[in-house]
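Cross-check.
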Amino acid sequence: MLAKNSIEFECKSLDETKAAMHGLVEPQITEFPSIFGLPPVASDDKKPSVTASDFTVPIIDFAMSRECIVEKIKEAAEKWGIFQVINHGVPLSVLEDIKDGVVRFHEEDPEVKKTYFSRDFAKTFIYHNNFELYSSSAGNWRDSFGCYMAPNPPDPEEIPVACRDAMIRYSKHVMRLGGFLFELLSEALGLSSEKLKSMDCMKGLLMLCHYYPPCPQPDLTLGTSKHSDNTFITMLLQDQIGGLQVLHQDCWVDVSPIPEALVINIGDFLQLMTNDKFKSVEHRVLANKVGPRISVACFFSSSMIPNSTVYGPIKELLSEENPPKYREFTVPEYSKGYIEKGLDGTSHLLNYKI
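Predicted model, tokenized:
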């Protein structure tokens, strides 16, 4: 493993170029910098991968009756922590536009992209390689840009032209669908449909747009290391290349791309608030020789922007037999610790256990 000061030097050298991963792969490299190699333990915990014939991530058709949808969401949230939704109402043209916008930005003139490069996570719009580059033992094979779309939508001029209209349009559909999902999740908990929304679970929306370049040695690195999300829920749009896997019954299971589907996963905040009734699923993204792979992750979380709301286990779900398992938190406090910890393969939720 590289010495810590050597890792920091390579990280700073990459950052100083402000070119991120795309700047590395454009010359068609055949090997990559050592900071992107997996550490010895991480390959990734040596857990087996299984095919779709062994396990299949639940697929929920929103054309069914509300009662059926709630029942299927309850089962998926408790047993898997993730599910795919189809017939969700977001137009295909909107889905295609946002994926195209992500490609346009990441393949933009490097001098244009450099003006947005930052590691200040309180900024409205930032572009970087791996938020966890300095805190994790190895870098991941991806570039990302992110923008807070709620509670205070950005001035359109703050969003690059390459993806501006697509992001604004897509975020409106995400907020609408997110509101519906929180109603269904509330009902799946046996609570009133407005419960989670009334607890400010929709207070923030952070859109992260990932670009995974083709990797010359995909067996030696990861697109994204194993982690769970510091969100209430995450809504993911992925292209058809594949690579997303979830940890289920100690096996890595492919989240096979389905045209027009959206992937919904439970985040740390909702696991804590439901007192472990719902599961915040651990997941990762494999590197691939084929690419670029594009995904758009919408995090229902205010993340690092000011938010004084205090969250904790929902009182209606507690009893003498089911006392609170976690202490209360604020989103900025949790997110700060999560970012500082990096994607080290452990859950930040453990720090909030009573």
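The two ends are 35 Å apart (CA to CA). Confidence is low (pLDDT under 50) at residues 1-7. Passed to J.P. for a second look.
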